[in-house]
Amino acid sequence: MRDSVVNQQLIAEQLNLSRTTVSRCFTNHPGISPDTRSRVFKLAASLGYTYQEGRTGKKSERKTLLNYGVLICTDPDSYADADYENPGAALLSGVSESAQLQKAKLDINYVRPRESSLRGASYLGIVGLQDREWDGVILIYPFPEVVIEKLDKLFPVVSLVEQFTKITLNSVDVNHNRGVELAVEHLRNKGHDRIGFLTHSYDVSAKWSLRRHSAFLAEIGRHGIKVSEGDIIDPFTAANLTSDQINERALEQTRQGVTAWVCAADHQGYLLHSHLRQAGLSVPDDVAITGFDGIKPPDWAPPLTTIRIPYHEIGLTGVRRLNDLVNKRFETAQDILIGCQLQQGETT
Question: Cα–Cα distance between 206 and 139 in angstroms, integer?
């Protein structure tokens, strides 16, 4: 790794910031906004840069800052994909703001989804992890459960936007049931009586898509809506299909009478929107689409009607919960669910 001055200068140049501003992001200077700190952390992680605290001053003074590791389970290229706004940036904004308030340093790193061991290449390069220098860990996005089990034996751990059933782990997530309830209720109020559900598959089992699928089944049952088997493209079906095949199946079901689709995530909704429009269908005149996330629409698409997740607040709450765990204020693991809101767009 290059020395910290070179790395911080590179980050500063790419973000059009001063090196002083970049340096202050890593030292929790109160004058730096959470958004700026989040941008710096995101780029630093993509460059493989980890802040190393200077060894000046008394050891007791250096130790006053807690050191939290942040692991983001995604390929760096995918995380930096400019086609869609990445919720991880909003999560990091909340995490960084809360860390500054809690007087904690953040060591942010990407790890690859396909690695199922802490001896994997992307884990071995993390000094704070390998040397057990962290006081606690924040997890962003789904992780293989075998990795979580090992991390949980080493540090206090809080997972953001992902809950686990087989592992007793603290998490902060959105209320998936409430979000799907809002989406289905909205579509019903618009007069839709044949509503389909669509999701994609992912490298690591995304339990959020399972929860949204289960919530959808409960909601259509509550409303007495009857659907055919093809109207629901669930996580198990999606595992055997490409994105194009999923959207083509949705197109076929739309032609057979589906008038609205509940998509498990916004980027899925935008891909479906593009596919249906290319097939000559009008959204929302011929078919309506709702998403789940609340990300900004890509340049080529109108904003989805979606469920807005308060990612910033989830990040804030996650660090507060981790700080409680580090200080042994609670013993029982908690799943903290944050509320969400329907965000009206142009697709219903």
Answer: 14
